[in-house]
Structures are given as structure tokens and as C-alpha cells.
Design goal:
By secondary structure, the chain is mainly β. The protein has helices at residues 342-348, 366-369, and strands at 14-17, 20-22, 28-34, 44-51, 66-75, 78-79, 86-91, 101-104, 106-109, 112-118, 120-127, 136-143, 148-154, 158-167, 170-171, 178-183, 193-196, 198-201, 204-210, 212-219, 228-235, 240-246, 250-258, 267-272, 284-288, 290-292, 297-303, 305-312, 317-324, 329-335. Strands 5, 6, 9, 10 and 13 form a 5-stranded mixed sheet that branches. Residues 275-281 and 348-370 have low confidence and may be disordered.
């Protein structure tokens, strides 16, 4: 009646034969806790067991029947041998909470995992299935007492995805480039990440993946190259799916800011022009232009295309459009006229190489958006 606090522990019963435990105890009332009954068996508690002097007190505890669960993993109809799979068993309906974990099934053969569990329902989580194979979750697997419950999980065949990155028609070479593979349609959510393609040569990335559809996210492509996305790439088992992405040639951008001497500090940022709004949230930051003291210009080496310069002194801003051509030096002189509100921008019109796309209703300041 005092609970199962460690200070209340009296003794352990001794095993005298199969499933039979006993010990002589002083007469009185005791609570029993039965642990380590085996995979799938929760601890049992028996309260208020009364020991009478000179008599044998006996209790029979029915813990339930056991059955065997066998999981067979296959890929393309063959026993799955990739990775180092772990088949984790959880209490059903516990949403794979760590405290609901019961046991891992044991690997008994290539692609075969099994274990003895108390009859009932369980959820399984399959991890470490190998490159290209995302984790899998199975819910509501029922194990029946006295029989073998067998499930075969087809993980899909393997195909190879090869991606070639080129710039100006030549292999795009950058040491830090990363090509990340996600389940298709998951909007590059972290939980949907599958694997990274491995770089095998200059501008060439590849990996074996489970057959299916994937989205690719390419980052760290080098200064002047914004991140790239590729959607709905279909990988077919037993074949090579190949894509070539032309990132564009490289050009030089040089900007002469007339009137820069009147400002104590300037920052020149470069953005790609957004698809939906020249000034909206769809514009993508590329890099900051660097200042060359010797030549008195701001410069950058970037991919060919249309860009927007955003020049600020920390309080006001000026925006100018510029087009860079591959293999050429694009030089532009800009007379600085930083403005603090959007209404002033609207008056500039074509003189600033841009056009306002909608009416701005609220006043904006640099401090609000920095």
C-alpha cells in the first residue's frame, strides 16, 4: 500500500521452476511487481497480497499468450540487403514516442527480422534502410498468440539518378555544391529528405535510389549562383535516370556609384528578379558586390541573367535593374539618389530601369524590412 518506491522494496521471489517463483515472508500484506516478462509484455502489478503465518499463499498471474512476428524486407522482389536496417516495435497508437518503444526485431537472415511478442497490436518503425530508402512506418500490426504473424514489406527496386550541372556548356565545378533529394511534393520539408547525391566528377552527381518520384534542391553552387529546385524526377528501378541542368555562363558586373562620397557607409546587394513581383518576396538574394578601392567600383562575378541591385546606406534604398551577359563585362554607372519611401520610387519610372507593379498602401521604412 506504499507504492513501488525503492525504499519500500522488501525482497525478490526466487525462481524454483519454470514460471514458478516463491519465498518465505513474514506474515502481513505485500504488493508485487513483476518485470522483465519479455518483449511486448508490460510489467504486472498485484496489490494487497496477504501472507498468513504457517500457510502457503498462492497467486496465478495470467500474462497472456505470445506469438512470433516476422518482417521480411524486399526490394524489387529480392531480399533487401542494403543499409543496416533497424526494425523497432512500439505500442500501438503511441505515435512512436520513445517511451512507447518495446524492442527491436532481430535479424535472422538476409532481409528477415523477427521476435516473440505478447499477443496484441503494435506499430513498427523501419530505419537505416540504406541510401535512397526513406524510413518507413507500419501501424496496427496484429500479433496472435501461438502463431507466426508474417509481413512482407516491398521497399521498391533501385535505380540510379545522375545529375549533370553545367555553366556556359562546361561542367560546373564548385567544391561545396550539395544536391539534396526529397520525396516528391513534400516542399523540401526536413522530414522528407532522403539522401544527398554523391559527386563523382566535376559537375556530376549520382546515387542509387528506390524507384519513385523525387524533388531535388541544389545549394552552395558558388558565388553568383542562387539555389536551384528540380521537381518530379522519376527514378525507375534497374535503369539510369539522367538530367542536365544548365546554370548559365559567368559574366562580370562592375558598378560605378556616382555621389558615393557623400555617404559614410553603403551596401550593394544583388537579387534575381522574381517571377511574380519585381519587388516582392519572390526575389532571391544572390550576393553583395565588393568594393575595389583601386578602381573605385563595386563588382561581382555572377551567372548571366537579369538582376536587381539594391543600394542602401542603412536608412534609405535605391533599386536598379541590370542585365549580365556570359563571358562579358557589364559596367553600369548609377547616380545615387537614395529614397526613403515607396511613393518616391514610383515617381522615378523608367529612369531607374524598373516599373512599380501595384499601388503601395502603407509607408515603408528601411528599418522595418532590414
Amino acid at each position: 500500500g506504499v507504492g513501488f518506491d525503492g525504499d519500500a522494496w522488501v525482497t525478490d521471489l526466487e525462481q524454483v521452476s519454470q514460471a514458478v517463483y516463491e519465498r518465505e515472508l513474514r506474515y502481513g500484506k505485500y504488493d508485487l511487481k513483476i518485470t522483465r516478462l519479455g518483449a511486448g509484455y508490460p510489467d504486472e502489478e498485484v496489490l494487497d497480497v496477504e501472507i498468513v503465518g504457517g500457510e502457503v499463499t498462492e497467486r496465478i498471474i495470467e500474462v497472456g499468450a505470445a506469438g512470433k512476428l516476422q518482417i521480411r524486407l524486399s526490394s524489387d522482389g529480392r531480399p533487401h540487403g542494403a543499409g543496416d536496417p533497424r526494425v523497432m516495435v512500439y505500442k500501438a497508437g503511441a505515435e512512436f514516442d520513445s517511451e512507447a518503444w518495446i524492442v527491436d526485431l532481430e535479424r535472422v537472415a538476409r532481409g528477415v527480422y523477427e521476435g516473440v511478442l505478447k499477443a496484441g497490436k503494435y506499430d513498427l518503425k523501419l530505419i537505416r534502410l540504406g541510401d535512397g530508402f526513406p524510413d518507413k512506418e507500419l501501424v496496427g500490426i496484429e500479433v496472435k498468440g501461438g502463431v507466426v504473424t508474417q509481413k512482407t514489406i516491398e521497399l521498391g527496386g533501385l535505380g540510379k539518378l545522375r545529375l549533370r550541372l553545367t555553366s556556359g556548356g562546361k561542367p560546373h565545378d564548385t567544391y561545396y555544391a550539395r544536391v539534396m533529394v526529397y520525396e516528391a511534393g513534400a516542399e523540401f520539408d526536413g522530414d522528407a529528405w532522403v539522401a544527398d547525391l554523391e559527386q563523382i566528377s566535376s559537375g556530376v552527381f549520382e546515387l542509387e535510389l528506390r524507384s519513385g518520384a523525387y524533388d531535388l534542391l541544389m545549394i552552395n553552387l558558388g558565388e553568383g549562383f542562387s539555389d536551384q529546385q528540380l521537381y518530379g524526377i522519376e527514378v525507375v528501378g534497374g535503369s539510369i535516370t539522367e538530367r542536365t541542368i544548365e546554370l548559365g555562363g559567368i559574366g562580370q558586373m562592375q558598378v560605378d556609384l556616382v555621389g558615393a562620397e557623400q555617404y559614410e557607409w553603403l551596401r550593394v546587394m544583388l537579387f534575381t528578379v522574381g517571377e511574380f513581383s519585381q519587388w516582392g518576396e519572390y526575389d532571391t538574394y544572390v550576393c553583395d558586390l565588393e568594393y575595389d578601392d583601386n578602381r573605385g567600383i563595386w563588382h561581382a562575378e555572377v551567372r548571366e541573367g537579369k538582376y536587381q541591385l539594391r543600394i542602401t546606406d542603412g536608412y534609405a534604398e535605391q533599386r536598379v535593374e541590370i542585365v549580365v551577359e556570359a563571358g562579358a563585362v557589364t559596367r553600369k554607372g548609377i547616380v545615387l539618389d537614395l529614397r526613403e519611401d515607396w511613393a518616391a520610387y514610383e515617381e522615378w519610372g523608367d529612369d531607374a530601369d524598373w516599373q512599380w507593379e501595384w499601388e503601395v498602401e502603407e509607408e515603408w521604412s528601411w528599418e522595418d524590412d532590414w
